[in-house]
Amino acid sequence: MPTPVYFDYLSTTPVDPAVAEAMASCLTLEGTFGNPASRSHRFGWEAEMAVEAARQQVAALLNADLREIAWTSGATESDNLAIKGVVEAAREAGNDSPHIVTSAIEHKAVLDSCHYLETQGVAVTYLPPDQQGLIQASAVQEALRANSCLVSVMHANNEIGTVNDIAAIAAVCRNAGVPIHVDAAQSVGKIPLDVKALDIDLLSMSAHKFYGPKGIGALYQRRSPKVPVTAQMHGGGHERGLRAGTLPTHQIVGMGCAAAIAQEALPSEMQRLSALREELWSSLSDIDGLRMNGHHSQRLPGALNISVSDVEGEALLLSLPEFALSTGSACTSASLEPSYVLRALGLSDALAHSSLRVSLGRFSDQNDVRLFSERLHEVVPRLRREAA
């Protein structure tokens, strides 16, 4: 069976060949394999230099200071560290009844962290999105309380690809004196992201979302003014005491290399993917009963979430074996429940079940888009006839 066309770039991205080559150079005795914390010999020094060079590459992608980047295992850990760490620090500072504002369509790493904190006596407000899948700054403003210690709102949604106005939300937070955390796993390396211009306090990211390896990510923590975050892992004082654990040099070098490539390719890749997405949507829009979920333009360049009435999503997937895509988030793909993101937008269970998340990326081309359009035009009428 031929390899399917990969249309699931929001789930994960293939490692760029240049990234794989850089990582391989850090694995053997002849390379930079040492422990970056080993300060007594050349192998450790070289590994530390490689780690710090990668830290600078990631910082440059965000317009941050390299001292504001702490390595983690990925955005899930970064989300947990930011949210739980801020709450714990707030309690240590005397806030006995901390309150968090987040959205109802955040990634599970944020939602499950908040649900856990609710069992620990933390109050959480879950803001609903508007009908276009966006969280409005005015809604954040109305939800803030005197005891609010954190606002956590994602930059780009992992299912529908909509992009929130983080600058406006951050302005509300700044005026209220409440720090803002942004889950930017889906936006880093895909759209411009300047932490200074956006006025962000904390930001989570994962390398595998922008052609780096899995198992490595980072938490950006603004240095001034600095939001206190209590460490959630202990055992060695690594990363300025924020996150313990031996640093995986090869993964960190891979993330740094991926960040450098993304920064250079960003303008041209955004333009190309936006054009491909618009070509795809234009070619599909004549299918009866098909709709785009989320804001039509305020979205990631390669992201498209569609629903087709009177057709079940799993049946659609089974009828499109030539394509690797999904009906929702990869983190919840084993669930039989309809997407909580689409339901929050007001879609019925049936329409939410009939959704497809199509995400294009660095290795997608016009032939892939045309083939998908042709196949969907064939499959949808057939499935409707069979269901009639």
Oligomer: single chain
* Proportion in helices: 25-40%
CATH classification, class level of the largest domain:
Alpha Beta
Order of helices and strands: EHHEHEHEHEHEHEEHEEHEHHEH
CATH architecture of the largest domain: 3-Layer(aba) Sandwich
Number of separate domains: 2
**Which class of secondary structure composition applies to the elements?**
alpha/beta
The CATH superfamily title of the largest domain: Type I PLP-dependent aspartate aminotransferase-like (Major domain)
The biggest beta sheet is recorded as:
7 strands, mixed
**Spatial extent as radius of gyration:** 21 Å
The overall pLDDT, averaged over residues, is 94
**Cα distance, first to last residue?**
31 Å
- Helix count from the secondary structure assignment: 12
Order of adjacent strands in the largest pleated sheet? 2-8-7-6-5-3-4
- The poorly predicted ranges are none
Per DSSP E runs of 2 or more residues, the count of β-strands stands at: 12
Beta-strand fraction estimate:
5-15%
CATH level 3 topology of the largest domain: Aspartate Aminotransferase, domain 2
The best one-word shape is globular
Keywords, please?
Aspartate Aminotransferase, domain 2; 388 residues; alpha/beta; 12 helices; 7-stranded mixed sheet; Aspartate Aminotransferase, domain 1; 13% strand
Could you characterize the architecture of this molecule?
The chain has helices at residues 17-24, 42-62, 75-92, 108-119, 137-143, 166-176, 195-198, 249-284, 313-318, 340-344, 349-353, 366-387; strands spanning 5-6, 69-72, 99-103, 123-127, 148-152, 180-183, 202-206, 217-221, 290-292, 303-308, 323-324, 355-359. It is built from 12 helices and 12 strands. The strands form 3 sheets. A 7-stranded mixed β-sheet has the order 2-8-7-6-5-3-4, with helices on both faces. It has a 3-stranded antiparallel β-sheet with strand order 9-10-12. With 388 residues, it is of the alpha/beta class. It folds into 2 domains: 5-12 and 266-373, Aspartate Aminotransferase, domain 1 (Alpha-Beta Complex); 17-260, Aspartate Aminotransferase, domain 2, CATH 3.40.640. The longest helix is centred in the last third of the chain and has 36 residues, at 249-284. The protein is 40% helix and 13% strand. The protein starts with a strand and ends with a helix. The radius of gyration is 21 Å and the shape is globular. Helix 1 (17-24) runs antiparallel to helix 8, helix 2 (42-62) packs parallel to helix 8 (249-284) and helix 8 crosses helix 12 (366-387).
